[in-house]
Amino acid sequence: MRLDVPANRAMLADILTDARDNAGSLSPTVWPVEIETKTLTDMLDGLIGQAGRLPVTARSREYFAPFLGRERIPIEINTDLGTAMDLDLTGPFLPDTPIRVCEVGGGYGRLAEAFLSTRPVHYVLVDSVPAVLMYAYEYLHAIFPDKRIGSVYAGHQYSTNWDCFILPAWRTGDIGPFDLTVNIESMQEMNESQVSYFLEWFDEVTVPDGIVYISNARDHFYKGPWPFPSNWEPLYWHNTPRSWSPDHPTIIFRKGTGDYTARCRKAERLFEREMTEWRIEQASLA
Q: For residue 229, how many C-alpha atoms fall within 13 Å in the half-sphere facing its CB?
């Protein structure tokens, strides 16, 4: 199995030491800092869920079909369907030229793998869980032997010459800018100050007219406010096949220069109708 990657104990020990000394307020909120694990597969239930590990069926493929274009990555397990959807939802808003992407909460690198496989990209993967930071490097380095995959914990220094670079959340001070910033099902596991911090940071490091892609359950661990910057223009605000609850939208913004507060409120009101329809449909099936 491509995800059966062994742990690098020495690297993990270095990351744990760094996290204890320097993570501070950016320490993981839901995940424990220390996780006993022998291979990446040990962590998959937490990272992608038991359903995410299951082989794709005709039914699950049909469920995602309206959100998928041509198949650009191998689709073997259910999580691959969500990854393909992320590529297809962001694609129309991105230039055809090489792009710079930063994903906060990038996990073991499922979306990084997809971008690295399909287009020229400089990809920065940010996370705060030590074991995940270790596996992201080991996994991407193994499947892309001909690409430049870097990590501060492999003794590398960050530069834009890397195809992909893995960084902890507490060491992102000198990176950017980016054409696309991403958070998928990670802010839902943060606290309010962390959510506010990363939304503000996305605004700082996203280029003018760049794209911000946010996909999170808002009725999961974190149920607080989402202070999207007023200069973010909403382009897409809907539930998708990833949504496991009524309030689980995927939102695409363009970083503009105007005030889009009113437009965001309208998008929220329309999404509230979508949530109501969801609840009515689920009640009818009960």
A: 22
CB-CB neighbours of 90 under 10 Å = 20
CB 127 within 8 A of CB 169: yes
Q: How far apart are CA 258 and CA 144, in angstroms?
A: 41
Q: Confidence band (pLDDT; 50, 70, 90) for 286? A: low
Mean per-residue pLDDT, 180-195: 96
Give 55's pLDDT tier (boundaries 50, 70, 90): confident
pLDDT at 88: 95
Note the residue count of the chain. Answer: 286
CA atoms within 13 A on the CB side of 24: 7
| Cβ neighbours of 49 (radius 10 Å) | 14
pTM for the predicted model, two decimal places: 0.94
256 secondary structure, DSSP code: -
Predicted confidence band of residue 1 (pLDDT cuts 50, 70, 90): low
Residue with tokens 């220390």: 34
The helix (H) or strand (E) run that includes residue 168 is: strand 164-168
Give the three-state DSSP class for 64: helix
Q: Where are the alpha helices (DSSP H) in the chain?
A: 9-22, 44-53, 58-64, 78-90, 110-118, 130-143, 192-205, 261-285
Residue 286: CB atoms within 10 Å = 4
How far from 93 is each of 182, 210, 211, 235, 253, CA to CA, in Å? 13, 9, 7, 9, 10
Judge whether 183 and 105 are in contact, CB under 8 Å: yes
